[in-house]
Amino acid sequence: MKWIKIFNSKNEADTALTEGKPVKVRIGSKELCLTRFKDEYFVTGNNCPHQMEKLSKGTVNYAGEIICPLHFYRFDLKTGRECQGRTEDLATYTVKANEEGLFVFC
Ligand code: FES
Question: What is the number of structural domains in the chain?
Fold first, then answer.
């Protein structure tokens, strides 16, 4: 695992991403989901642990949970935990932003 640059700066990320609108990010063979929520960035796996729907097609609620569009399970963006424990946790990845860019550790 290593730090991978996703954007050249946080400003670039802020411009490219809409608050609460997840997007798909491909890094090597991994398909991840990047979400901007309350001026923070979160990276999770993009496949729902329930039945593999793409979470980048989902939405984010006021509590910082990403909602799968297929059966509406809700996963905490920070911990990956499904709110009612109905399925496995979603993979989460550490994100950092500094003057050199926005990075994910994966
Ligand atoms: S596939 Fe995501 S909740 Fe069922």
Answer: 1
